[in-house]
Design brief:
By secondary structure, the chain is α/β, with parallel strands linked by helices. It has a single domain, classed as Phosphoenolpyruvate-binding domains (TIM Barrel), CATH 3.20.20. It contains 12 helices and 8 strands. The chain has an 8-stranded parallel beta barrel with strand order 1-2-3-4-5-6-7-8, surrounded by 7 helices. Strand 4, helix 6 and strand 5 form a beta-alpha-beta unit. The relative contact order is 0.14. The structure holds 3-methyl-2-oxobutanoic acid and sodium ion. Sodium ion binds next to loops. Catalyzes the reversible reaction in which hydroxymethyl group from 5,10-methylenetetrahydrofolate is transferred onto alpha-ketoisovalerate to form ketopantoate. InterPro entries: Pantoate_hydroxy_MeTrfase, Pyrv/PenolPyrv_kinase-like_dom, Pyrv_kinase-like_dom_sf. One of its GO terms (molecular function) is 3-methyl-2-oxobutanoate hydroxymethyltransferase activity.
Length: 264
């Protein structure tokens, strides 16, 4: 498969070809994912939950992400890798640059941070310094204690309008990709239509330009709890490579996510 770049991702959006993304944390799985043709891998701070066993993502450090980014890159030389900037590593533009630089040196192609318009200066500076940025709106887990739990976001008209404006601000600041997590499908569609950069959804319906799943959810081993928006692809395929292949195929054909996986 041809190497994925930000230009290729944008072209996929324009041509309506769906992007299939997965989280990855080590070389064995990143190699398998690359072999099956996953377009984008995310070294997510979800590792605080699925690797470290925490209630939330807040304990994850920039060093943790850098370490796992090195592991993922070692197994997948050609795949587009995004690395999460963890909680409190981008409170100001200078911190964002220093911490993002560590992740880029570890092998990332892009960094992801959570939040809306307030991130404008950080995103602008990162992009000026040569670091591509992915935004993240909706249920942004680093704010779980402000939300009062892992709850669907953007349900009121006011919140939906604010999120659309945030998405536009992120794009204007220079962001080249946007993750939308746990929002109503109609809002995800409105955001996807309102901006020209690709959107990658999780619990955001089928109208986003791509999908992402936490790899543990894809194989049904997320500590006894499978989120509504997720699907165990191992059940119907019986082995790991086939499960990943089925996930990619179902995302690209529009079969996943189905109506049972979305919020309205
Ligand atoms: O950390 C993570 O895995 C994420 C995805 C769920 C988008 O941010
Ligand atoms: Na994350």
């Amino acid at each position: 498969m041809a190497k994925i770049t930000v230009s290729k991702l944008k072209k996929m959006k324009q041509e309506g070809e769906k992007i299939a993304a997965l989280t990855a944390y080590d070389a064995s799985f990143s190699g398998l994912f690359e072999e099956q043709g996953v377009h984008v891998l995310l070294v997510g701070d979800s590792m605080g939950m699925v690797l470290q066993g925490g209630y939330d993502t807040l304990a994850v450090t920039n060093q943790d992400i850098a370490y796992h980014t090195r592991c993922v890159r070692a197994g997948a030389k050609d795949t587009f890798v995004i690395a999460d900037l963890p909680f409190m590593t981008y409170s100001n533009p200078a911190d964002a640059c220093n911490n993002a630089a560590e992740l880029m040196r570890a092998g990332a192609n892009m960094v992801k941070l959570e939040g809306g318009e307030w991130l404008y200066p950080a995103i602008e500076l990162l992009t000026q310094q040569g670091i591509p940025v992915c935004g993240h709106l909706g249920l942004t887990p680093q704010s779980v204690h402000v939300f009062g739990g892992f709850k669907i976001q953007g349900r009121t008209n006011e919140a939906a309008e604010k999120m659309i404006n945030d998405a536009k601000a992120l794009e204007a600041a220079g962001a080249q990709l946007l993750v939308l997590e746990c929002i109503p499908s109609e809002l995800a569609k409105a955001i996807t239509d309102a901006i020209s950069i690709p959107t990658i959804g999780i619990g955001a319906g089928k109208e986003t330009d791509g999908q992402i799943l936490v790899m543990h959810d894809l194989v049904g081993i997320s500590a006894g709890y499978i989120p509504k928006f997720s699907k165990n692809f191992l059940l119907e395929t019986g082995n790991m490579p086939a499960a990943v292949k089925k996930y990619i195929d179902d995302v690209q054909s529009g079969q996943f996510p189905g109506p049972e996986h979305e919020f309205n």
